[in-house]
Amino acid sequence: MMSKLKLSANISEKTCAHMFRHRFITIQVATRIKDFKKENLPIDVIDTILTKVSSLSGHQDPASLKPYIDIAFAELDAWKTADKVLAIRSKLEATYRELQSIKLDLQNSKMTKEELLINFDGLLEIILSAKN
Q: Which of 62, 99, 8, 16 lies closest to 25 in space, CA to CA?
């Protein structure tokens, strides 16, 4: 069945049903730890998370899932970076739209020089805040 799905999806990389199981476990662990920082994650929370995930995945020993903790944290770091990039992009797109609006207002003489400078300063603040 996996071979047929692989061909249908035009996937050339190695695939197997067990990969879905690994992905499922990683997502389950990451979802349960995303509110904690790695340094502050108490051992009892780790044990609780792994016990819950082992019941979902059919693992007899929750300790066998410990490697997924590091994998999940790596994914969470990637998600944080992606969230920052999306936030920056959103602010820059909003700034671009506002600059287009200011340009039209200037072309139609609907804005004074002082109003332009006030709007421009506000847009510069948005751009600078995007890096945070």
A: 62
